[in-house]
Amino acid sequence: MQTRLSDLGDKRYQAWGKAFSTEVYPIGIDPDEITRNAKGPLPPKLAQLKNELKNVKNIFSVERLDYSKGLPERFLAYETLLEKYPQHHGKIRYTQIAPTSRGDVQAYQDIRHQLETAAGRINGQFWSAWLDTALLSEPAF
């Protein structure tokens, strides 16, 4: 089936007898803002975190909280690493920053609970003077 797309002007179009509008909603980072922030002094909490982690290998993951991102599998992979290679305990830290995108949806509440449970289990199993796993809803700096 072929259709003709008609340009109605002002970002409005028509196809299959239906009119619709289009808009641009960029997803991603603002490189100029990152550059500006990188040139300034570190916020106190970030400076403290940097000092705490300077002698530790770090795995950082930043993804919105979404069941399609494989976040529980990442926690499981990290837990498996610590179980199979205990010599890395205390030398590698996993930090997951996962801002909630749709906190009112049950599926997203469920994955948040699943990740909190996994972080607690890993920290409980491999506890030391510092946390092996951190789950943040947003950057804490």
TrEMBL record:
The keyword Transferase applies. The lineage of its organism: Bacteria, Pseudomonadati, Pseudomonadota, Gammaproteobacteria, Enterobacterales. Gene3D superfamilies: Glycogen Phosphorylase B. GO terms for biological process: trehalose biosynthetic process. Its EC number is 2.4.1.15. One of its GO terms (molecular function) is alpha,alpha-trehalose-phosphate synthase (UDP-forming) activity. It comes from the Bacteria. The keyword Transmembrane helix does not apply. Belongs to the glycosyltransferase 20 family. InterPro entries: Glyco_trans_20. Pfam families: Glyco_transf_20. This is Alpha,alpha-trehalose-phosphate synthase. PANTHER family: BCDNA.GH08860, TREHALOSE-6-PHOSPHATE SYNTHASE. Keywords: Glycosyltransferase, Transferase. It comes from Klebsiella pneumoniae.
